[in-house]
Structure formats: structure tokens, C-alpha cells
Design brief:
Length: 288
């Protein structure tokens, strides 16, 4: 075998670096594509195609002309039908690429996806609760563990949805008194008791719900969303400070900045750029 083609690769350190970079980029793209297909219907189809590809190579090697002709026609048919069969997965890949998530690690991308859903559902629930002046306290746990406060609540382990959140805080229901704690994109516990803030500078008109929502952010990196039953005011507590008089849109923007954008800044320039573009487009829609 002639190995002369390798002489150019090892001619200079730059060629070695370029070849390694080329291999790493291609390997990462294949890894991300496979990770996006894992757990979908396309995963089984892909396995079938790999088996068929191996079979085609074997048929070609053994020179089975009739079978090889048939497989060639099948591959032409697959070239036409595969984009249709893989349409949901292709759309998902293009969406992730457009949002800058294709180059984000899988764990970070999944966490950001969960935060997007949580933010949307909380914003919708907060809007309804505030309009009807139903008091609520929702805590989003992040990195700092708050298990000692989870132990005081009632287990839920359910998906985050605006309907569930609204029903939990309906007055005189078993779980309305206390806080809902959301962790890892799911409602973990309801009716949890939280530590009260001892901040002497708090407005004296703020009640126990606001002090509890603020208190949990003083001992952890959690974020609290508080809806006042007296005024219907939406507030957010984070890092021991309170932001009041929010509406559904400003609440969504604040949570998006605190959860999605902050998470992406730890991992990816591409995701940060995409989030800025998305925020600008949403602001333009609100102004239109």
C-alpha cells in the first residue's frame, strides 16, 4: 500500500493541527447528531439503515450483481424518502442550530430546554393568579441544595404546567398554603415551609409570603416568584433582593435572563448570542 499521501500531513505542525481539528469537528458533529436522535423513532430507523449499509458492502464485496442492483435502486428511493421520514428530527436539529444550542453540551442544552418550559408555564400561571388576586409562592431551585425545606412539603413530582400551578394555589385547597418548589424542570413538592427573612429594611406592608420568598433566596441561589393576594402584585426575589410590580411579560424576561441566559454564559458564546437575538425579537413583537 502506498503511504505517500501521509507525507503531506506530517510535513509541518500546522498540517497536523489542521488534520486533528478536522477530525475533532466531524466527530463532534456526528456525536451531537446521534445524541439528538437518541430516544426518538429515528433511532430505530438509523439502526436499520446501518444494517442495510453493512449488507450493501457485503453484497458488493461478494459481487452479487442482482442483489446489488436491487440495493442501488433502494438507496435511490431512500434518498428521496429519508428527508420526509426524518422531518421532525431535521426540524429539531435546525431549530437547535438556529438557537445556538447545537454547539452547547447536551446537559446544558437539556437544562435550558427545561428552563424555557418552566418560564413559560410560570408566567402564564402568574398572570392568571395575579388577575384573580390569588396568593402564590413558587420557588425555582438551582445549584444550592434546599432539601431540608423540600422535606417539609407534600411530594408531587409532576410536570410544570400553568394549570397545575393555578389549581395548587386555589384558596382552601389542601396544598394552597406554602410554597411550590420546582427543581430539575419538575414540581418536586408543594405546601413547603420556607425560612423567613429577617431583613429590617423590608417594607412593613409585606407579609409572611414575601418574607418566606425572600428568605429562601438569602440562604440559597434559588429564585422565588411571589403573587400578593391583597394587590395581585407579582414580585421576584433573588440573592436576597426583591423586585416588585412585574407583569407577565416582564416576569418572563427577568426569569429568562436569570435562568436561560445565565446558564448559557457558563457554557457557550453561541447560545448567548442566540438568546440576545431572541430577546430583541420578543421586544420588537411587544412594541409592535
Amino acid at each position: 500500500m502506498d503511504w505517500g499521501f501521509l507525507s503531506g500531513v506530517f510535513a509541518s505542525p500546522w498540517n497536523i493541527f489542521r488534520s486533528l481539528l478536522d477530525i475533532v469537528i466531524v466527530a463532534y458533529i456526528f456525536y451531537r447528531l446521534l445524541s439528538l436522535l437518541t430516544g426518538t423513532r429515528a433511532e430505530q430507523l438509523l439502526k436499520g439503515l446501518i444494517i442495510l449499509l453493512v449488507f450493501s458492502v457485503a453484497v458488493s464485496y461478494m459481487q452479487l450483481d442482482m442483489v446489488n442492483w436491487l440495493l442501488e435502486k433502494l438507496w435511490i428511493l431512500f434518498a428521496i424518502t429519508l428527508p420526509i421520514v426524518f422531518q421532525p428530527e431535521l426540524r429539531r436539529i435546525l431549530e437547535q442550530l438556529g438557537r445556538g444550542r447545537f454547539f452547547v453540551s447536551s446537559s446544558t442544552g437539556e437544562k435550558i430546554d427545561k428552563y424555557d418550559i418552566v418560564i413559560k408555564e410560570i408566567s402564564e400561571a402568574a398572570s392568571v393568579l395575579a388577575r384573580n388576586r390569588v396568593g402564590a409562592l413558587i420557588v425555582i431551585a438551582r445549584e444550592t441544595g434546599i432539601e431540608e425545606f423540600l422535606d417539609s412539603g407534600t411530594p408531587m413530582d409532576s410536570l410544570v404546567s400553568s394549570g397545575i400551578l393555578i389549581n395548587i394555589f386555589v384558596p382552601n385547597t389542601p396544598l394552597h398554603d406554602g410554597a411550590v418548589i420546582i427543581k430539575d424542570g419538575r414540581i418536586q413538592k408543594a405546601a413547603c415551609f420556607l425560612p423567613l427573612s429577617n431583613n429590617p429594611n423590608l417594607d412593613s406592608q409585606l407579609g409572611t409570603r414575601h418574607r418566606a420568598g425572600l428568605g429562601i433566596t438569602e440562604v440559597s441561589d434559588a429564585i422565588s416568584i411571589i403573587i400578593s393576594e391583597e394587590t395581585g402584585t407579582i414580585s421576584v426575589a433573588r440573592e436576597g433582593s426583591l423586585v416588585r410590580y412585574l407583569d407577565a411579560t416582564s416576569l418572563k424576561d427577568l426569569l429568562d435572563n436569570e435562568l436561560v441566559v445565565q446558564e448559557s454564559r457558563r457554557d457557550s458564546f453561541w447560545r448567548r448570542w442566540a438568546a440576545d437575538v431572541r430577546n430583541e425579537s420578543e421586544k420588537k413583537k411587544d412594541m409592535a
